[in-house]
Specification:
This protein is an alpha/beta fold. The chain has four domains: 4-127, 3-Layer(aba) Sandwich (Rossmann fold); 142-258, Transcription Regulator spoIIAA, CATH 3.30.750; 265-378, Transcription Regulator spoIIAA, CATH 3.30.750.200; 383-440, Beta Barrel (OB fold (Dihydrolipoamide Acetyltransferase, E2P)). The protein has helices spanning 14-29, 53-66, 69-72, 83-88, 91-95, 111-119, 167-171, 179-191, 217-225, 245-253, 270-276, 282-295, 314-327, 354-378; strands at 4-10, 32-34, 43-48, 77-82, 101-103, 125-127, 149-153, 155-156, 175-176, 196-200, 232-236, 260-262, 300-307, 331-336, 383-391, 398-403, 408-412, 421-429, 434-440. Bound molecules: S-adenosyl-L-homocysteine, iron/sulfur cluster and FE3-S4 cluster.
Length: 441
């Protein structure tokens, strides 16, 4: 039989990237071959995001471009999946007639079945219902040769309903994967040479809530720590309200757990946090940051902030600036509030004008750049453990890797270092990376 090629376009967060990896593994098992060349594809899958309006626009502009390939290849099948597909359902066909099928976030494991039906003539399928159990993929997604790092999904969905956010509507209620399944997957990854795993979920620190047997995130981390061959553990994302003292203590007690936490704060104003339905105050957030830094002084703390939430006054915004000055994040993603259909915040009055949102965003980004630069400069002279990923993009004689705190380090070294952990003395801290000198193996 002729080889069928599949091309996957991914638009979303790390969870979406991981979903695309799973789609690829599943369809390769079915005999498809993955291609990076869309013109060669027999099937094109879109794995989309709907978190902000911009993400939607990006997916549709790429869809408009890629469906043109049907002119030359009428047999090409185009599947529209992921969070935006979940959001729009049938509405996808109104936006783009050339789509052949729509599949939502709970239907990845059903892709072979859906594709078979579409190939056999089923027209305009819309597969967007939610299931009440996690649909197991049933196949192991092996890492690419030489890949050191892998994502591992530990849960899906979200029950938090932050008032601005569409995720609970697009990914369904929170469900945790059984620990045995997760541990088995990580053992297999470690056997394939993976040294670092990033555990994924919208709110990993509430892992286990719906599981029998009393497993929680801390006990899961402890079991992962014991897996031979694995060297580094990371996780994302943590919700501040569910960050327990027990979990904070893991940064001291678990040697494989890397010194980095992404802890989205969203705002420095208690009034805004309340309207966002975040479930913590600025004071409580700051107390957790302080405890993290006491338990683990070298920990890197990164965060997300939204500017221009409906009704955010100049005073609320200033409180966010003040909080940033107080905490000094190692890095920060800041976003302009984007109104999402179906969310509670959509009914709030008092929108912040676009120009003002833009001004606040620019100002926060400049402030964060200053903090990031100061943090990186302060590392000059220190010695960091670097897991070497491979040759640097910018120079043939340089290798690149990451510190335990997730900073990129470039240094002189040979290709034989790829996959090794080395000690590097930092000679220069830039805004987006560090420069260093290897001191031993
Ligand atoms: N589950 C994660 C984040 C998921 S979305 C958490 O709770 O932290 C990633 C980030 O996108 C959020 O932290 C938030 O800062 C931002 N975001 C979500 N909805 C948004 C919206 N409607 N407008 C602007 N930014 C948004
Ligand atoms: Fe969205 Fe809040 Fe859930 Fe994060 S915790 S995914 S921001 S609802
Ligand atoms: Fe991720 Fe976007 Fe969905 S951020 S969970 S792909 S809406």
């Amino acid at each position: 039989m002729k080889t069928r090629y599949i091309y996957i376009a991914t638009f979303g967060c790390q969870m979406n990237v991981h979903d695309s990896e799973q789609m690829a593994a599943l369809l390769e098992e079915e005999g498809y071959r993955l291609t990076q060349d869309s013109a060669r594809a027999d099937v094109i899958l879109f794995n989309t995001c709907s978190i902000r309006d911009k993400a939607e626009q990006k997916a549709f502009s790429e869809l408009g471009r890629l469906v043109k390939l049907k002119e030359k290849n009428p047999g090409l099948l185009v599947g529209f999946g992921g969070c935006l597909a979940q959001h729009l359902g049938e509405g996808v066909y109104k936006r783009e007639k050339a789509v052949d099928f729509v599949f939502g976030t709970h239907h990845i494991s059903r892709l072979p079945e859906i594709l078979a039906a579409v190939t056999n003539g089923k027209k305009r399928a819309v597969e967007t219902c939610f299931f009440s159990e996690i649909q197991s993929l049933g196949v192991f997604a092996p890492p690419a040769p030489g890949e050191l790092s892998a994502f591992v999904s530990i849960m899906q969905g979200c029950d938090n309903y932050c008032s601005y956010c569409v995720v609970p509507y697009l990914r369904g209620p929170e469900m945790s994967r059984p620990p045995e399944e997760i541990l088995e997957e990580i053992r297999k990854l470690a056997c394939c040479g993976v040294k670092e795993v990033t555990l994924l979920g919208q709110n990993v620190n509430s892992y286990g809530k719906n599981l029998a047997g009393g497993c929680n995130f801390v006990s899961l981390l402890k079991s992962i720590e014991a897996i031979q061959g694995l060297e580094r553990i990371r996780f994302t994302t943590s919700h501040p309200k569910d960050l327990s003292d027990d979990l904070i203590d893991c940064f001291r007690s678990l040697s494989k757990l890397c010194e980095h936490i992404h802890l989205p704060v969203q705002s420095g104003s208690n009034r805004v946090l309340k309207r966002m339905n975040r479930g913590y105050s600025v004071g409580e957030y700051c107390a957790k940051v302080e405890r993290l830094r006491t338990v683990c002084p070298s920990i890197s703390i990164t965060s997300d902030v939204i500017v221009g939430f409906p009704g955010e006054t100049a005073k609320d915004y200033q409180e966010t600036v003040d909080m940033m000055e107080k905490i000094r994040f190692d890095s920060l993603f800041s976003f302009k509030y984007s109104e999402r259909k179906g969310t509670a915040a959509r009914t709030f009055n008092d929108p912040v004008p676009e120009a003002e949102k833009q001004r606040r965003l620019k100002e926060l980004q400049a402030l964060q750049d200053r903090h990031t630069q100061e943090k990186n400069s302060a590392l000059e002279g220190s010695v960091q453990e670097v897991l070497v990923e491979g040759p640097s993009k910018n120079s043939d004689s340089d290798m690149t890797g990451r510190t335990r705190a997730w900073r990129i380090v470039n240094f002189k070294g040979g290709r034989e270092l790829a996959g090794k952990k080395v000690k590097v003395e930092i000679t220069r801290g830039f805004l987006h990376s560090l420069r260093g000198r290897m001191i031993n193996r």
